[in-house]
Amino acid sequence: MVKKYKRTIRHNKLYIMMKRLVSKLVLCGDLAVGKTSIRRTYFGDGFIRDHLSTLGADFAIKRIKIDENTQLELQIWDLAGQPGFESLRKRFFKGAGSVMLVFDLTRRETFENLDYWFSQLWAASPNQSMVVAILGNKNDLEKHTVKPEEVDRYFEKLRTKYGLEKNQMRYYETSALTGENIEECFQFVSNALLQEIKMQN
Is the pLDDT of residue 52 over 70? Predict the structure, then answer.
C-alpha cells in the first residue's frame, strides 16, 4: 500500500509540484533474530553486539529520491518479538505495504515461527500486493539450520494461501554485523513498491 501526497516548493521563483510517495514497512520476527541490528546497519548507525530488546516498536524514516520531482518515504517499523505485545503489534501492522520477515539462520525455530508472524500481519492488513522479503540473518555464523529451498517452499505456501505475487517476494541471507545484503534487501522492497505504483498508473 502506497499513499501519494503532493506539495509545492519554490525554487528560483519557480513553483514545482513535488510528489511524495509514502509506504509502511514492518520488520517482524522472533526475539533476538537481529531486526534492530538490520535497521541500524541500513541507516549507518553501526552494529551493537549487546543492546536492549525493542519494547513495543521503534520507528524510522528513509527518504529515497526517485527523480527530481518524486520521493519515496519508507516508514520503517521495527516490532518487538517477545510475547506480550500482540495487541500492540496489530495496530502497527495496519496499513503495511511491505514486510521483512526475519529469522536467525542458526535457530531453526525462528524460521518455523515465520508463519505465525505473517498470519498476524495478514489478519491486521490483508493486501495481495504486499511486498515480502524474508531475511535469514546472522549469515556470518556457522551451522545454518535452514536451507534456501525450504524458504522457496515457504514462498510457495504464501502464494497459494494468500494469493501473493511471485515477483513481490525475495529471500536474502543477511548479516547485520558485516552488512551483507542489507542494502540489497531494502533496495528490493523500494523497487517493488515503485513497480506497484507504475502498474497502478
Answer: no
Q: d(Cα 69, Cα 62) in Å, to the nearest integer?
A: 17
Q: Indicate whether 1 belongs to any domain.
A: no
Q: What is the pTM of this model?
A: 0.85
CA distance 85 to 66: 35
Q: How many domains does the chain have?
A: 1
Q: Is residue 2 part of a domain?
A: no
pLDDT band at residue 18 under the 50/70/90 scheme: low
Q: Could you count the other beta carbons within 10 Å of the beta carbon of residue 83? A: 7
Q: Is 17 a domain residue?
A: no
Q: Collect all residues with Cβ–Cβ distance below 8 Å to 112 and sequence separation of at least 6.
A: none
> Which cell goes with 94?
495496519
Residue 12 confidence (pLDDT) above 60:
no
**Does any domain span residue 120?**
yes
Name the residue range of residue 47's domain.
22-63+74-200
Task: Give per-residue pLDDT as tens, 95-139.
Answer: 999 999 999 999 999 999 999 999 999 999 999 999 999 999 999
Task: Look up the CATH number of the domain holding residue 194.
Answer: 3.40.50.300
- In this structure, the number of other CB atoms found within 10 A of the CB of residue 119 comes to 12
Burial class, 153, CB count within 10 angstroms (exposed 0-12 / middle 13-18 / buried 19+): exposed
